[in-house]
Write a structure and sequence with these properties.
Layout (H helix, E strand, L loop, with lengths): L1 H92 L1
Length: about 90
């Protein structure tokens, strides 16, 4: 009986290890294919994001320009109002 167990048990273990090795090889091959697909998707998203980046830069520059123009207009109007009231104050003092 012991000789049978000593003979059969290693064969069963080697057989199961061979099956496990084959399953792991198949799993790794599928994983490599999946990672290739993920890499292509990430590259595509990165490409599209870089295209959108230029659009957002254009919008940012336009917003900065509009902000500068509106600041100058507000500054001009506030200076005119201040000068107008300063002239009235000078006339009242005289």
């Amino acid at each position: 009986m012991k000789q049978c167990v000593d003979f059969v048990f290693p064969i069963i273990i080697y057989f199961l290890l061979t099956i496990l090795l084959i399953v792991l090889i198949i799993f790794v091959i599928r994983l490599i294919k999946t990672l290739g697909k993920v890499d292509r998707i990430v590259d595509d998203v990165s490409n599209k994001a870089s295209k959108l980046n230029s659009v957002f830069d254009l919008i940012d520059n336009t917003a900065d320009t509009l902000s500068t123009v509106s600041d100058k207009i507000v500054d001009f109007i506030s200076n005119k109002i201040i000068k107008f009231f300063q002239k009235k104050d000078k006339k009242k003092e005289e």
